[in-house]
Amino acid sequence: GGGAPEPAPAGSAGAGGGGNSGYTFAMVTHETPGDTFWDKIKAGAQQAATDTGSTLKYSNDPDPAKQSTLIQNAVDSKVDGIATTLATPDALKGAVQSAKAANIPVVAFNSGIDQYKDVGALMYFGSDETLAGQTAGQRIAAAGAKHPLCVIQAAGSVALEARCAGVKNGVAGTENLQVNGADDSSVVSSLQAKLSEDKSIDYVVTLGAPIALDAIKAIDQSSSSAKLITFDLNAEAAQDIKDGKIQFSIDQQPYVQGYLAITSLYLNKKNGNDIGGGKPTLTGPSFVDSSNIDVILPFTKNNTR
Amino acid sequence: MSQTVKTAPAGAPAEASNRVSLGLSNRLLARPEVGAAVAAIVILIFFLIMAPAFRSPASFFTVLYQASTIGIVAVGVGMLMIGGEFDLSAGVVPVSAGLVNAMFCYNLGVNLVVGAVLSLVFALLVGFLNGYLVMRTGIPSFLITLGTFFVLQGANLGVTKLVTGSVSTPNINQMDGYAFLHLVFASSFKLGPVTVWGTVIWWLLFVALSAYVLQRTRIGNWIYAVGGNAASARAVGVPVTRVKIGLFMATSFLGWFIGMHSLYNFNTLQAGNGVGNEFLYIIAAVVGGTLMTGGYGNAWGVAIGAFIFGMTSLCIVYAGWDPNWFKAFLGVMLLLAVLVNLYVKKLSTTRKVG
Amino acid sequence: MSQTVKTAPAGAPAEASNRVSLGLSNRLLARPEVGAAVAAIVILIFFLIMAPAFRSPASFFTVLYQASTIGIVAVGVGMLMIGGEFDLSAGVVPVSAGLVNAMFCYNLGVNLVVGAVLSLVFALLVGFLNGYLVMRTGIPSFLITLGTFFVLQGANLGVTKLVTGSVSTPNINQMDGYAFLHLVFASSFKLGPVTVWGTVIWWLLFVALSAYVLQRTRIGNWIYAVGGNAASARAVGVPVTRVKIGLFMATSFLGWFIGMHSLYNFNTLQAGNGVGNEFLYIIAAVVGGTLMTGGYGNAWGVAIGAFIFGMTSLCIVYAGWDPNWFKAFLGVMLLLAVLVNLYVKKLSTTRKVG
Amino acid sequence: MTDTLQEHADPELTEGESLIEMRDVGKTYGAIRALKGINLTVNAGEVSCVLGDNGAGKSTLIKIMAGLHPHNEGEMLVDGQPVHFGSPRESLSHGIATVYQDLAVVGLMEVWRNFFLGSEMTGSKFPLSGLKVKDMKRIADEELRKMGIVVKDIDQPIGELSGGQRQCVAIARAVYFGARVLILDEPTAALGVKQSGVVLKYTAAARDAGLGVVFITHNPHHAYLVGNHFIILKLGQAVLDKHRSEVGLDELTRQMAGGDELTELSHELQR
Amino acid sequence: MTDTLQEHADPELTEGESLIEMRDVGKTYGAIRALKGINLTVNAGEVSCVLGDNGAGKSTLIKIMAGLHPHNEGEMLVDGQPVHFGSPRESLSHGIATVYQDLAVVGLMEVWRNFFLGSEMTGSKFPLSGLKVKDMKRIADEELRKMGIVVKDIDQPIGELSGGQRQCVAIARAVYFGARVLILDEPTAALGVKQSGVVLKYTAAARDAGLGVVFITHNPHHAYLVGNHFIILKLGQAVLDKHRSEVGLDELTRQMAGGDELTELSHELQR
Ligand SMILES: Nc1ncnc2c1ncn2[C@@H]1O[C@H](COP(=O)(O)OP(=O)(O)OP(=O)(O)O)[C@@H](O)[C@H]1O
Ligand SMILES: Nc1ncnc2c1ncn2[C@@H]1O[C@H](COP(=O)(O)OP(=O)(O)OP(=O)(O)O)[C@@H](O)[C@H]1O
Ligand SMILES: [Mg+2]
Ligand SMILES: [Mg+2]
């Protein structure tokens, strides 16, 4: 046995493409620290910064009020552009407006597809959470799902609620469950409890790759016959897709979101480009299942998918 | 021996007194907030060096704004802690209050001012309930308010889901009364390149009021007493129950205030928010020199604590440090602040006089 | 008066004694854990009625498993609280310990057992540091451990990112030593339809040990004393510093243990996990009758507290109640448990004898 | 030093009037019986001494009068009205001031704040009106000086004072605020000879100003110097209850200790 | 009752040997000076009485010997060796046991646990070896009975005892564990006549068993009954330091209070 050290991760592919453009871009998200998903957004953004020779300043806070202060913080720092998530567009509108007033271009990514223009962002890169959920819902409905369980790992999160609402659009019988995403043991126990309480659950929909791994354990231990799908990917989850433990993943390609957000700012500054021509640029939903997992699996190990 | 008593003119020492009179610098150093202030200055200078982006008035005022949103509730939490109690529900009360206001008015089409008053009543009720249960049952406030914290957190989500079908409130900025309330709770003005937020001014007002109450009024005396030794305070006639319930209500009031700010600043509220803020308030109070066990502390100290926390958390970003290490920096800064505070206090008690 | 002293045979009452001898039921009721036990039974019966899915042995053991993952660290946190201190870093220490083990072994290709020992040393060091700083600086443990909490939380993320390039550890289940460690920390066996987890058995062992130490050993005596009145304990010769540092280290040890469980049960760890668990431990201890201010409590009480919390949080799911209201139910149940506990305690002190 | 008492005494007191009356009062702490069947009257202008062994129930008795613990048997009348104090505040509002055995001070608070705690001097009735800090400091200092105590700094936290200094603060406070009844639980326990003398004079002065005084002590000499009325408790029950005219110092001492202790001891210990 | 002392006294003590010696010791609490230039010797088989007004520095003096606060001027020798105690544990390990003025008990813990706190009886040296609970309860009970105190339930939290009962527990504990030096800070303050007598006899017994005793009191009569040696403190400095042979009770009393207080008082208060 014994694991070999991995090759150096993200950033090793084509470094230093753009020389030194001198730009500083701020990225502000509503990340709760420690999620593999956000890690990929950061990896993409960092790669873009490296490629365009600019500097990236990343900051995050799940509380909209604090996220808004962080945007203000970027404005105070006189950055050359701001990329932000718009999970709570109304709450961030003021801060985005103040960036505009300071002539700092703002692009949105990951969330806020319907409101980004309204808020004042120039472009949008990402998928639509509700749409992604709905697509997933429709796909499992076609596979015969009657009573899926949608697992929310952070109570009250707008994005997660939107995904579950989307799934419910696809399959009317969808039920939600709240778990404590910061504690794997607790996630397993809660899921186990739910699966034994309601034997009619035929699909489990997890909203993050780490939770999917816990769900596999829970399904196993409660001898449930429910099938599992998940949002997002990581190396282990990709392996489980290959092994057939996870039916498929709805991937919104976070690496691309981060990469495009920063690149678009660069192009906008440098060249006045407007990617998407006034329309949102969709990075997903893209399905990862047994049909394409072999191609994708190596990339997940690089932390780029 | 009785002659000294009879002949001594009022105010003159009765005997060759070895009374100590402390020098100004010692008196100053002994004030509970001075340690925190020194710590704040040390960290301020540190970040002025480390974070060039912080060296503008605009940045400074952004920090002040951030500090004020923590600091306003921390004023109440600090007083409560001086009074010997905790309030873990202080983080979600603002959200609950905002939700009550927004949903009540939106769904019934009522003027927002009515909703604001209603939500104030609601918040005061929560505070009263916290205090009443703590005093009535004798269960530690940590547990009682943990209970209300969970209940409110659950209810915020449950009720919002029920009423709006989503986890956030609708946008209220088109409703009657919005302009007025926005002005009161969420206005800001430009001073050259600098945006000054109303909350900063409100914050200073609340701190000044709290400082006055604590130092200069009978109620302040009682607050220190119930926190320092509730049994003794009761024995000499301090109405312990009323004081503590009052403190819980004051905390809820300030929670309501900041809830109104969030609502009228952002026009919409997320039902899941606020969780975790209760600890920021406690941190601000403790960094500012408030004793966890009650009976000691000071309003300006708490304000400085909030400022230190706000400054540190934003300046790590201004300095552009690796966000993965954010919390680690924050932790080190906090420990630093507390150590400096302690060192200053030690200095004040070990310095000789004369 | 001295004659009574001189003639009294050892052990016989020196005078017409009005000594009280309490009946069995009063003695029983006065034990700190009985209130919690009654509360647990009340809630158990309640959920047996409300949640049909809970009525199977398998469900009961799932609850036990859940309780054990909280309960193991709560044993340490409870003892620490009896000793008058808090440990807010108890939630992230398990994750840190697991990360140290996983990354050290994976990146250097070392046998996992070596890493486990190393991470034990690391955890004990963190505990020692917590205790040492608290005793050395005199800063309240709430603040010191808040500092280490932040630092560890940041370091978990920062180091993991640095080492693995991602925020979770690689899968270690193919490495040397895995089988053995999995057996020790994360095994389970089937008993008919029921899965019994090793952690449950470990938990009971730790609780029994802790109960023995607290009630029957010199160290236990010292723990109660340093928590009840550190100044007095010091004055009669209790080595306050060593006792408190020892308690911090015991807490870290148990944190390490549960960290090993997570690692060898899930084979991979998220660097951001564990945050928030520190409060679950404190909740378990306090629901189990431990005094927040120190000096009073009991190991079985803490265990029952963990059980109540685990049961409540899972049974809400078993009962199929609206998940949006989850926290609200949890809050109500907690308050209920504490109230029953208090009621039983009151009963024990107001009942007349004879 | 009697000025303070004269100034603050309720002018409506008439000597001999019954201020507190206990009828068959009893008290249990859970399973532990501390008092049983106590009958006692505190009259204006008289000092009632309560004496007794350790654990006899003396402190429990006065805690009932002070409103700290409610009694659970019998009845208590204050100014002729049956009362059941829910808190010391109620007792204070009847003009009853108490020095507790454990002093009831808040260690972290300044000496002067402790002195006025619960009875602060303010500019007006308005709850947020300012404290008269200067006046309060001056008065606290004056009253302490009258007892022969000069604290080094009136702004010092009271927890830093010596045991006897703390006791003096508690006594001075009670004397200053007691308008009708003054209750002293072992006030001289931690005091030096000088201060003890002052306290005894205060007690006498309070009596002369018409207050009812309850005086608990272990020292029969002290008791006999000022007392009008002596009650000895034993295991929670009154075993002696006599007027000064009915009992001499010798009998009192004998009753308290079963013999003229000090003399006997000095024989025994003589070398 | 002297059995306890005889049994536990260090057999190597020789009368007159110097156990603790203080040379020019001083102590400040921050800006406040509590002691200055104290020279004092505690000899085996002698009782050194420390007397003085409230706030004179008596408790501070014995806290230095007990290791509770370190001194910051001068030097202290124990058994001839210069020491600077970092904690009371070190002092205890030299056979020095102390009764503090504020008693140093843990209110929530049972009486017997408090009695043995810091010096528990265990089966073996192994840190987790079981406590000898039965023995400890028996001994605690016996020792308290020897002082004439019967607590209602030895398993009661000590916080529920009366003030005097708590003081008896603290004294009995020190007597039981004191092997070379016994320090008593106002031990009779809260005690009745009977118990005070017992404590004085204990003090004499300790002296006779060869221990060095430091006895703090406000009562010159008590002091003169047992003392060999008298030190009077005033504002932190020693103003009198004499052997029993050099000073009479009258002079002692006069020195302490500036006059024969009690007699004077009784004249003044006589009605
Ligand atoms: N809070 C309490 N809980 C239980 N028992 C108590 C409590 N307070 C006092 N007691 C018991 O009641 C009895 C009387 O106590 P009290 O304090 O009234 O005695 P006392 O006469 O004041 O003694 P002393 O002279 O030692 O102060 C004692 O046996 C004591 O143990
Ligand atoms: N912890 C402390 N901090 C500051 N000052 C103190 C402290 N302890 C004692 N003092 C001061 O030191 C002086 C001596 O106090 P100490 O307790 O030694 O007096 P004492 O002689 O024991 O008096 P008493 O007879 O009243 O017990 C007093 O003026 C007191 O205010
Ligand atoms: Mg008493
Ligand atoms: Mg003293």
From TrEMBL, chains B, C:
Pfam families: BPD_transp_2. It is a multi-pass membrane protein. GO terms for cellular component: plasma membrane. Keywords: Cell inner membrane, Cell membrane, Membrane, Sugar transport, Transmembrane, Transmembrane helix, Transport. It comes from the Bacteria. It is found in: Cell membrane. GO terms for molecular function: transmembrane transporter activity. The chain crosses the membrane at residues 34-51, 63-84, 104-129, 141-159, 194-214, 245-263, 275-292, 299-319, 325-344. The keyword Oxidoreductase does not apply. Part of the binding-protein-dependent transport system for D-xylose. Probably responsible for the translocation of the substrate across the membrane. This is Xylose transport system permease protein XylH. The lineage of its organism: Bacteria, Bacillati, Actinomycetota, Actinomycetes, Propionibacteriales.
From TrEMBL, chains D, E:
GO terms for molecular function: ATP binding; ATP hydrolysis activity. InterPro entries: AAA+_ATPase (IPR003593), ABC_carbohydrate_import_ATPase (IPR050107), ABC_transporter-like_ATP-bd (IPR003439), ABC_transporter-like_CS (IPR017871), P-loop_NTPase (IPR027417). It comes from Microlunatus sagamiharensis. Residues 20-260 form the ABC transporter domain. Keywords: ATP-binding, Nucleotide-binding, Sugar transport, Transport. The keyword Transport applies. The keyword Transport applies. The lineage of its organism: Bacteria, Bacillati, Actinomycetota, Actinomycetes, Propionibacteriales. It holds the Pfam family ABC_tran. This is Simple sugar transport system ATP-binding protein. Signal peptide: none annotated.
